[in-house]
Amino acid sequence: MVSRVFPLVLIPLAVACAPLAEVTETPAAEGVSGALFVAGKFGNTLAKVDLATGARTALVASCANPHELATSPDDRHVALACYGGTSVDIFRTDGLEKVASIELGDNARPHGIVWQDNGDLYATAEGRQSIFWVRDPLGKAETFEYGTGQRGTHMLVVAPNARHAWTTDLSSKTVTRVDLLTRRAPQSIEVGIEPEGISLAPDGETLWVSARGSNEAYMISPEDLTVRKSVSVGPFPLRIAVRPQGDFAVTSDLAAGALTVIDAQTGEVARTIAVSSPQEAEQRQQVTILWSPDGQRIYVAETGTDTIAEVDFASGKVLRRLDGGDGGDGLAIIE
Question: Looking at domain 201-274, which CATH architecture does it have?
Fold first, then answer.
């Protein structure tokens, strides 16, 4: 199927957002710094948490049902995918002032989002069965749309050189490879039941996908989409994330309240980390996971209890739980 490309020029909008709540307090952590940003999909909010103190330092109104987040290469801005609407909204990371709203068109329902090192934004538009490339998002914000031809185009990753993107397509049970620089037709393969989580190894040599309906993770060749190996993991692996060092991939197993750690070289399960008990799992509703830049901690969004669990990777211990706002889901971090 041939990709569709529709260039548009959009003008950023400057909008001020007032805080919705007071700062909350959580135990401080020694040797930890930076800030964590949380999309509150139930409360329609964007939150900022100071990782040194554990305090939520800002909470502002966002768009309807925000899901995934991405920070700019210079850490000055955070982009929010407005899953309940049609735009990608951009906020300053210091005070969470909204500075731009980039419209993607009717029924867009943007979900997955990447802010690439080249300064451009990439987002899925699930309602349009496509992905968008937003060139110069803080300037001209030119948008280019690429059809995947697949239902439920949900999450994505982008190659380090920004030549290709890969999506998971929930309803079509596929993974799709999109050529961003040509009109070449996208390539798709079926992978498990309801593939959703996706992560690209730091060296770009392995695509990792988790299928929540079949309780499996897959090692896939990014070039030809050949499945190299399938790995049985915990129940309902909603997300998968590769450690920055590239040595492990971890799935977020919602139904177990746990993380499955996979050796990236062998494709074997190395261990399981319990984030909550099986009895608590239904209440906590563990979803998105995010590595700290140094690979020492994993942040786990627990949507049902409005908490973000901070997990020490080496010991598997939950260090503390942070307040991320109402229905915290998407996560992004700056040092």
Answer: Beta Barrel (2.40)
